[in-house]
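Minutes, structural biology subgroup

Action item carried over from last meeting: produce the structure token record for DNA gyrase inhibitor YacG (Pontibaca salina). EB confirmed the sequence was re-checked against the source entry. Recorded below for completeness.
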Amino acid sequence: MKCPLCQTPTDRNWRPFCSASCADLDLVKWLRGSYAIASHEPEDIEQAQQQLCERLDKPNL
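Output recorded by EB:
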């Protein structure tokens, strides 16, 4: 099995990654939203905006 980030063989301790650095890099990508699938549908954007405003307890923009 190869590391999904650098394609080197995986390490049993960090599987599916080869090292702690690749595992950490993958985590950073998740936390920054790099793996998110963008939506250009107006309904999705409006719904996300409404949910955010509700969470922040503010009126809709």
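Discussion: The CA atoms of residues 7 and 18 lie 8 Å apart.
Next step: EB to file the record with the rest of the batch.
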